[in-house]
Automatic annotation (TrEMBL):
This is Peptidase. NCBIfam families: phage_NlpC_fam. One of its GO terms (biological process) is proteolysis. Residues 1-147 form the NlpC/P60 domain. Keywords: Hydrolase, Protease, Thiol protease. GO terms for molecular function: cysteine-type peptidase activity. It comes from Paenirhodobacter hankyongi. InterPro entries: NLP_P60_dom, Papain-like_cys_pep_sf, Phage_pept_NlpC/P60. Belongs to the peptidase C40 family.
Amino acid sequence: MSVGEQAVAIARRWIGTPYLHQASVEGAGSDCLGLLRGIWREIHGQEPEPVPAYTPDWSEPAREERLWAAARRHLVVASEEAGSLPEWPGEVILFRLRAGGVAKHLGIAAEVGAGASFVHAYSGHGVIESPLSRPWARRIVARFQFCEGGI
């Protein structure tokens, strides 16, 4: 099984986990970063760096792309072209939720091509698999892949 297929299988196990800001515990609570952290731990072991406490509007006042910078440090860049759709299951998708805002939402591509979908933790919904519909696709700012065998 490829690392991408492994990431999708792990992400789908988390479906139904309630949304809980800053949490990263399968079945108990998670936000979008927590979901990614949980997948990382299962694939690679210990997380690559400590995650400081963060607020829901983190990095917005300073306009810092902290999540994007962290993704570049620990994942392989697949594309940093806005609106670029995932090509492989298991890609980490980074979204900008509103124009002019910082990129601060993550998901894992589950299906690609026709019927594309992604798994993410979304406030008010928990961890779910959503269609990668046009409203979501237009918010994509970058895509990344997990390294085989860790970093």
